[in-house]
């Protein structure tokens, strides 16, 4: 099939997905969790369903002057409170007051506090890890394929997936209050490696075909490589997507957005490896020929 004659259509589809997310990133940014901003997560468990006890929990926090950002259910009998840093004495007061209000003393399951300094340090390390990973991937692909255009195009396709994922979560953060945490960072780094893996498979097929068919044009070689690797990429990705869908539907609430990030990244990575990385390589090659 002649995929490369539609390369500008593929770029347009990518732009239609990336531009709304990019607008959201610039205007609303991402909603960081306390992992980045600093604060406390307190998880409590009741013996009965939380149900209408959320109002009593909110009243308790207001009475004790606890500056909280959200109260979420974590299963039928659990609640998750996110607040500015609080002490162990505050936790004891919350549990004691709640016991008086609802007639039951909740069990403390989790009490984690992250300082704002540690949160800022985590942000710096996250960006450093992504940039460092991109540099290593660029140099490795460049070295393996003996030409810089392979490394640059692979990294551009990788950043395509990053922008898609960041844009989706920026929109979710603005409209649904979804926050990013350290699990999101893990998802981003995982997806970058997945994206490059599929891209290298396509590039390797192009390199093999150039040796076997020296007289064939680069565009035809790219079409041949995409045609041969596309079924394998789709089959491979579908096994991952089905597993992630099962985790998303049946897994716990704490893993929900981590799994969703992997889902978005897997779909985007499968698309970019074939319909972004290969067309970018073709555009680069055509530009080189025109320059000569």
UniProtKB/TrEMBL annotation:
The chain crosses the membrane at residues 122-142, 149-171, 183-203, 234-251, 257-284. Pfam families: Sec_GG, SecD_SecF_C. It comes from the Bacteria. GO terms for biological process: intracellular protein transmembrane transport; protein targeting; protein transport by the Sec complex. InterPro entries: SecD/SecF_arch_bac, SecD/SecF_bac, SecD/SecF_CS, SecD_SecF_C, SecF_bac. It is a multi-pass membrane protein. Residues 97-285 form the Protein export membrane protein SecD/SecF C-terminal domain. Keywords: Cell membrane, Membrane, Protein transport, Translocation, Transmembrane, Transmembrane helix, Transport. GO terms for cellular component: plasma membrane. Its main location: membrane. It is found in: Cell membrane. GO terms for molecular function: protein-transporting ATPase activity. Part of the Sec protein translocase complex. Interacts with the SecYEG preprotein conducting channel. SecDF uses the proton motive force (PMF) to complete protein translocation after the ATP-dependent function of SecA. Belongs to the SecD/SecF family. SecF subfamily. Forms a complex with SecD. Part of the essential Sec protein translocation apparatus which comprises SecA, SecYEG and auxiliary proteins SecDF. Other proteins may also be involved. This is Protein-export membrane protein SecF. It comes from Candidatus Shapirobacteria bacterium CG03_land_8_20_14_0_80_40_19. The gene is secF.
């Amino acid at each position: 099939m002649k995929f490369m004659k539609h390369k500008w259509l593929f770029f347009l589809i990518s732009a239609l997905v990336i531009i709304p997310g990019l607008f959201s990133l610039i205007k609303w940014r991402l909603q960081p969790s306390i992992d980045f901003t600093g604060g406390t997560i307190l998880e409590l468990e009741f013996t009965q369903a939380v149900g209408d006890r959320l109002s009593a929990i909110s009243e308790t926090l207001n009475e004790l002057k606890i500056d909280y950002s959200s109260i979420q259910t974590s299963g039928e009998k659990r609640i998750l409170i996110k607040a500015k840093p609080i002490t162990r004495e505050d936790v004891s007061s919350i549990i004691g007051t709640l016991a008086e209000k609802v007639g039951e003393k909740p069990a403390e399951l989790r009490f984690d506090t992250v300082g704002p300094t540690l949160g800022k340090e985590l942000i710096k390390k996250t960006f450093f890890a992504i940039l460092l990973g991109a540099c290593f991937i660029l140099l490795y692909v460049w070295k393996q394929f003996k030409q810089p255009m392979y490394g640059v195009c692979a990294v551009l396709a990788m950043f395509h997936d990053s922008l898609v994922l960041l844009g989706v979560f920026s929109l979710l953060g603005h409209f649904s209050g979804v926050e990013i945490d350290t699990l999101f960072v893990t998802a981003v780094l995982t997806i970058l490696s997945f994206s490059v893996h599929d891209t290298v498979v396509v590039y390797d097929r192009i390199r093999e075909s150039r040796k076997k068919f020296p007289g064939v044009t680069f565009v035809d070689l790219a079409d041949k490589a995409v045609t041969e690797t596309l079924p394998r990429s789709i089959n491979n990705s579908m096994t991952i997507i089905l597993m992630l869908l099962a985790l998303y539907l049946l897994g716990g609430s704490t893993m929900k957005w981590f799994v969703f990030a992997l889902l978005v990244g897997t779909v985007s990575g499968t698309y970019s490896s074939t319909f972004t990385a290969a067309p970018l390589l073709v555009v680069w090659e055509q530009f080189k020929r025109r320059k000569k």
